[in-house]
Amino acid sequence: MMPWIDRRRAGVLLHIASLPGPQACGVLDEEARRFVDALCEGGFSVWQFLPLGPTHGHGSPYESLSSFAGNPNFIDLRECASRKWIDTSDLHTVHHAPGANTARIKAAIGFWNETKENTDLAESIRRFQVENAAWLDDFSLFMALKKAHGGQPWWQWPNPIRQRNPEALADARHHHTGAIHQVIFEQYLFFRQWNALKKHAETRGVMLFGDLPIYAAHDSADVWANQSLFTLNKNGLCSEVAGVPPDYFSKTGQRWGNPLYHWEQMKVEHFDWWVKRIQAQLARMHLLRIDHFRGLEAYWAIPGESKDGTVGEWRKGSGTELLEAVKMELGYLPLVAEDLGLITPEVTALLKHFDLPGMKVLQFAFDGMPDNPYLPGNFGPNSVIYTGTHDNDTTLGWFETISPEEKERLAHYADLSGGNIPWSLIRLAIESDARLAVIPMQDLLSLGSEARFNTPGTIDGNWQWRMQSGQATESIWTRVRELNAHSERIHPDY
């Protein structure tokens, strides 16, 4: 069986949205390729990012409108200008989201007009639709219907559409052809640009490391098109929702609001939806993290009417059967488990059964307990080590808030005399025996709490930080390359 990763490597955690550039968020073309090149300069061979799906208004990539689609905000509209689908002057408006959306609408008109005369382009889009019909047909109609109903969630649509009456769906496809074509164009262009980025990464020896939320968003094409697989009542509302009990991140737990899975029905269908979901992601990237992995072994079920995660109960999941089904289809499991939080012996046994690596976060290591699983020396090579994750404060922000006792314990493991705290933990991570070490970009830049990407349990102010052009200097990449080389994380060919 192929291993989840072939050798000691180091990576950087930076979401696509956080790339610098001229649009409202980072995009897939020029700046993304340059970032891949910069990773190579630093001796990194893994780029980790957050889920790629289209998001709701709050912007969380863990609450996507589809488990299969790409976020159209990541499309580089400069390609549309070069293809004459929009005017060059339109690029002056794409630095904010409404302008970018208007430009994409205009580009779609130009694109479909060109397909009437350009047979190669027409064949390309036809082939894309056929190859992705299993999810694209439902997603494009879902988005067209959301637009037609003023953005309302699907359970507030008229009954025939909500309940997917075949005649009502056929009629909707006929009446919303323009909006459907808009979505198809956006997905076609997203994946064309994504595949070009993937090819560039592969030529540079860089693995793309993606992320898959364990749950689907309630208001998503996934749930609307597969209602029997989720804990919904006859009106489409959630009888129970996902979340976690009180923990390190939140004293009241977290109520995520996603419907839970009907695992028994999943078993009847041989976990087909889940298998296709993972297959689709691994066609786009080389390694995949399963967010909230412990929910596959047992999950926190919260009553639908509850406001937080304090009330609920643990129930057994179907992780073993699911992973066996995926393994049988793929032949191997290039998966990393997000195993943070309350981890039971049963979760550990599930990881060991499939030989899956878990996550080790240095910010959690210095509580004074000698058996702390995040302490360097307490974990083996089958791990991915981080200074912090997208859910943590930056390492500098974290250090400024921890107790004197924690700082003293940290000093036993790291040299704090230089005053550049993030680099003390960066060195610890890279020099550890974990097969993969991942450093958030904010830590490489030595940024404080102003650059925190997400605070779990909150909605406002998250997912907004962006790296600025020129912020990552050559000296930063040179410094970290020396660490990666010393720790044998650089392949001789690179």
Q: Can you offer a commentary on this structure?
A:
This protein is of the alpha/beta class and 494 residues long. The protein has an eight-stranded parallel β-sheet with strand order 9-6-3-2-1-12-11-10. Strands 5-4-7-8 form a four-stranded antiparallel β-sheet. The chain contains 19 helices and twelve strands. The protein has helices at 30-41, 78-82, 97-115, 119-131, 133-148, 159-162, 166-175, 177-203, 221-225, 263-268, 272-282, 294-297, 319-330, 345-354, 395-399, 404-411, 421-431, 441-444, 474-486, and strands at residues 9-13, 46-48, 207-212, 240-244, 254-259, 287-290, 298-303, 313-316, 335-337, 358-361, 383-386, 436-440. Helices cover 39% and strands 11% of the residues. The two termini are 26 Å apart. Helix 4 packs across helix 5, helix 5 (133-148) packs across helix 8 (177-203) and helix 11 (272-282) crosses helix 13. It is globular, with a radius of gyration of 23 Å.
In short:
The chain has 494 residues and is an alpha/beta fold. It has 19 helices and 12 strands.
Strand content: 5-15%
Would you tell me the structural class of the helices and strands? alpha/beta
Strand elements, count: 12
- Give the CA-based shape: globular
Distance between the termini: 26 Å
Number of helices: 19
Descriptors:
alpha/beta, eight-stranded parallel β-sheet, 39% helix
